[in-house]
Amino acid sequence: MRLQDRTALVTGAASGFGEAIARTFAREGARVAVLDLNGDGAERVAGEIGERAIAIACDVTSGPAVAAAVERCRAAFGSLGIVVNNAGWSHRNQPMLEVDEASYDKVFAVNVKSIYHMAQAALPVMRAQGHGVILNVGSTAGISPRAGLSWYNATKGAVNTLSRSMAVELAGENIRVNCIAPVIGETALLETFMGAPDTPENRAKFLATIPIGRMSKPQDIANAALYLASDEASLVTGVVLPVDGGRTV
C-alpha cells in the first residue's frame, strides 16, 4: 500500500474530488480525517470508509475551527503527515461586475484564506515531526482562465502560485508542497462553472475546449493526489500539475 500508516487530512471531503481523495488514501493504507462544512456528509464518507477514518465538521474559513480540526486529527491518529486543501467554492459564471462583494469575499475566503489557516495549524505539527506533504487543489482556471469566472480564476491563480512559493520556503524542512489543477469536472459545482443548466448542448461547449474530450472525474484527481502524496514523488515539490485532458496545452 502506497500510504501505509500515514495520516491524512482532506478538506471538502464529503463529496466530489475530496471524497474520492479520502477514499483512495484510505484504500492505500492511510488514516484519514474527513473534513467538510457538511458534517452529515463527512460522517457518511467516514462511516463508509470504516475505522481508519474520522469525520470532522469544519468551516475552513475560520482559523479557530481549522486549528481545532488539526488538533482533533493529531489526537486521534498521533500524527499528521498529509494535508489536502481541497475545499473550494465559486461564484456563478457571469460578468465580473455582476458578482456582489459578499460572493467575492466568500470565494477568496474559501479558496485562498483557508490555506493560510491550514498552514498556521498544520505546519507546526509537520515541523515537529520533521516531514510533511501539502497538496493544494488549484485549477486550470488559474492557468488558462475562462470568461465569466474572473474572481474565481483569481483565487485559483493565487492557489497555484502560493503552492510553488510554499514549496520553495518549506523544502529545507522536508515538507513537500504541490498543486493539482483540474479541468472543469463532474461535481456539484458544474452548473455554477457553466453558468447554465447541465444539458448535453451546454456540456458540448466546454468539452470542445478539452482535447481528450471529457471533463475530469473525482477519481482522476484522486489518482494524481495519491502519486503526489506518496514516496514515489519524494523529489517532486513546487509542481502545479494540470489534470486537464490537454486543456492548458
Blueprint (SSEs and pairs):
Layout: E1 7-10, H1 16-27, E2 31-36, H2 39-49, E3 53-57, H3 63-77, E4 82-85, H4 101-129, E5 132-137, H5 150-170, E6 175-182, H6 190-194, H7 200-207, H8 218-229, E7 240-243
Parallel strand pairs: 1-2, 1-4, 2-3, 4-5, 5-6, 6-7
Describe the structure.
With 249 residues, the chain is α/β, with parallel strands linked by helices. The protein has helices at residues 16-27, 39-49, 63-77, 101-129, 150-170, 190-194, 200-207, 218-229, and strands at 7-10, 31-36, 53-57, 82-85, 132-137, 175-182, 240-243. It has a seven-stranded parallel beta sheet, sandwiched between helices. Helix 4 links the parallel strand 4 (82-85) and strand 5 (132-137). The longest helix has 29 residues, at 101-129. The mean pLDDT is 97.
